[in-house]
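Subject line: Sequence and fold of a protein, written as structure tokens
Area: Proteins and the way their chains fold up in space.
Start of record: The labelled sequence and token lines come straight after this line.
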Amino acid sequence: MWTPAQQLILQNIGKHIELRPDEQSHFISLLDSKTIPRKALLLKEHEVCRHSAFVVAGCLRGYTVDANGFEHVLQFAPPDWWIADMYSLLSGKPGQLNIDALEATEVFLLAKTDQEQLYRDIPRFERFFRIITEKSLVSSRQRVLDNMSLSAQERYDQFCRQYPTLIHTIPQKQIAAYIGVTPEFLSKLRSKRKRGAI
């Protein structure tokens, strides 16, 4: 009945709430399927985020650009992950996050207005999105603490635990921008890790 992409998002939902077949159909009907070309933006800074994106295939990244033009990667979203500018999505105000595709990426988009309708139609979805939002908040807070207290090697090890599928599939410079080091320094960290010299 469901496509593999639809099955993936329903399994993601099913980790936290149970849906009847008719509720599954209603949820699926609200999703907008989209393919984002490599390097194309799904969201640009100063725009209002109006959708949550669920990655079916490919990989998205959320990042900011500082006054010197340096990119700071805040989050990656491989398959089975949700991503949005949470501040903008929840406040309705322009955000500071750019979200683009590291490779051609297939997503389901859920509009904020449809998400709010889901809360009325299927109240259990409030629990699902509360859990997703709480996890995002905890992850963001932990990133701040890690950046202040962990060594570069420890931050790389943390990345490997959080994104095990991305270690060898995304450009090294993206990982470096995530953990806050140069690509050259990251290369040294990876060599140390391979040799077990940590």
Summary: The mean pLDDT is 93. The two ends are 49 Å apart (CA to CA). The beta strands are 32-36, 41-43, 51-57, 60-65, 71-77, 82-83, 98-101, 105-111. Residues 124-149 form the longest helix (26 residues).
